[in-house]
Amino acid sequence: MQIGFVGLGRMGQAMVPRLLECGFAVQVWNRTPGRATPLLALGATQADSLPALASHCDLTFTMLTDDGAVEAVFSPTSGLLAGEVAGKLFIEMSTIRPSTIHTVAALARERGASLLDAPMSGTVGPARSGQLLALVGGAAADVERARPVLEALCRRVAHVGPSGSGTTMKLVLNMPMAIYWQALAESLALGSQAGLDLAQMLDLIADSPAGIGALRIKIPVILGEQQPVAFDVTGVRKDLLAMTATAQLHGVPTPTGSAALASFAAATAAGHGTEDLAALIPYYIELVRKTAGQ
Ligand SMILES: NC(=O)c1ccc[n+]([C@@H]2O[C@H](COP(=O)([O-])OP(=O)(O)OC[C@H]3O[C@@H](n4cnc5c(N)ncnc54)[C@H](OP(=O)(O)O)[C@@H]3O)[C@@H](O)[C@H]2O)c1
Q1: Is 88 tagged catalytic?
Q2: 3-state SS class at 203
Q3: Structural domain for 175, as ranges
Q4: Looking at 88, 170, 218, 238, which residue is catalytic?
Q5: 277 lines ligand 1 (CB under 6 A)
Q6: How many angstroms separate the Cα of 88 from the Cα of each of 108, 145, 187?
Q7: Which of 5, 13, 122, 162 is 20–30 Å from 39 (CA)?
Q8: Nearest to 212 by CA among 241, 186, 183
Q9: CA angle (41, 42, 46) in 5-degree steps
Q10: Distance (Å, rounded) from C-alpha 64 to C-alpha 7?
Q11: 251-278: per-residue pLDDT in tens?
Q12: What atom of ligand 1 comes closest to residue 7's alpha carbon?
């Protein structure tokens, strides 16, 4: 089976080597073509264009920044859906809005192709070692067709319902976590203003029921250590925008989601957008300190 992979950012750079290691033939395309170079050295091939990749590959993954990127890549005039795609299967893995999945899935269907939404829970490390959790929306027959390849990337493949439901499930999973970082920022700002030690607060929170699984690995970043960025502040802002907008469509009020969105947007506007998402915390503590005139 010939696999296509579009989007060689942080996640793509981890997932393509995993697919190659598992024995799949992989053809890649990236908007900035030079990012393919390390993957070509591992045995991937590079397509000249998106329509050429789509017609060459049986199954094509996309892993892209946001809704705008997904719409551009699936463009029926210049993107994946511009060529001969009847019978092809697309697997869209980005964290985006379900409404965008409905649009691109309909365009794919009109051209005789199928599309699954399969956003991934897990970050760069699990992507590299095939330990992701796939949240899949779409037809059961397409999920079974994709399963051998998804299982190379994932510790678990969960089919959660029809087209768009995988993407909705991803927003459901990530929303409490995005809000958690803002809640943590507020509690640590309280402690800091009252004179408690930041490292000790983090150590004790992580050792209590208030510490989520992702906290311990973020502690060095919160304390100022420079580490490779797995997911950034503006990425969480993008997710929270998708969560609150999708909740509105369903008539669901999201007061804490909206508050977290305002904070991640302010941190982005203050120049922290490309920093690790945990940079929200030192940013917020400093903001509170300055506001207090200290
Ligand atoms: N990083 C994580 O830990 C993580 C975990 C789970 C899910 N996710 C989700 O996975 C997706 C990708 O994340 P990432 O961290 O890999 O992002 P990333 O490092 O920022 O990479 C984004 C990719 O999208 C491409 N792109 C952006 N705009 C485009 C456009 N208009 N047309 C064509 N290509 C475009 C970029 O191409 P260029 O190279 O040309 O910029 C790059 O290949 C996001 O939706 C994210 O929320 C991320």
Answers
A1: no
A2: helix
A3: 170-291
A4: 170
A5: no
A6: 9, 11, 50
A7: 122
A8: 183
A9: 70
A10: 5
A11: 999 999 999 999 999 999 999 999 999 9
A12: 43
> 44: which 2 tokens?
């991937």
- Give how far Cα 152 sits from Cα of 167, 204, 235, Å: 20, 37, 26
Name the one residue in this structure whose structure tokens are 């904070």.
263
Number of domains in the chain: 2
Q: Final residue of a domain: which of 98, 132, 163?
A: 163
Place of tokens 């699954």: 116
Q: How far apart are CA 88 and CA 57, in angstroms?
A: 8
The reply to whether 20 and 150 lie within a common domain is yes
Phi first, then psi, for residue 177 (nearest 5°) are: -70, -40
How far does CA 228 lie from the centroid of its chain? 16
pLDDT reported for residue 175: 98
Q: Among residues 143, 163, 183, which one ends one of the domains?
A: 163
Distance (Å) of CA 58 to CA 145, 174, 259: 10, 31, 43
Whether 152 and 190 map to the same domain: the answer is: no
pLDDT at 85: 97
pLDDT for 294: 80
How many residues are listed for the chain in this entry? 294
Which residues of the chain fall below pLDDT 70?
none
Dist CA 265 CA 273 (whole Å): 8
Cβ atoms of residues 233 and 277 within 8 Å: yes
* Neighbouring C-alpha atoms within 13 Å toward the C-beta of 137: 21
Å from CA of 203 to ligand 1 middle: 32
